[in-house]
Amino acid sequence: MTDNKQEIPKAYAPSKTEDKWYKYWLDNGLFHSEPNDKPPFTIAIPPPIVLQAVITV
Predict the structure, then answer these.
(1) CA 57, CA 53: separation in Å to the nearest integer?
(2) pTM of the full predicted structure?
(3) Which residues, other chains included, contact 25 with Cβ-Cβ below 8 Å and sequence gap of 6+?
């Protein structure tokens, strides 16, 4: 077995990640949708108090 330790950055650098994935989404048409007769599907995010409890755990 080999030891594959990877350095984890101490802070998130969005410029190193988000530009790459945004380009991928654009190149693959992931922001595109076609109108259809299906009912809309939505997800409501939980209220902030729920998020705060999850974040501070």
Answers:
(1) 6
(2) 0.47
(3) 31
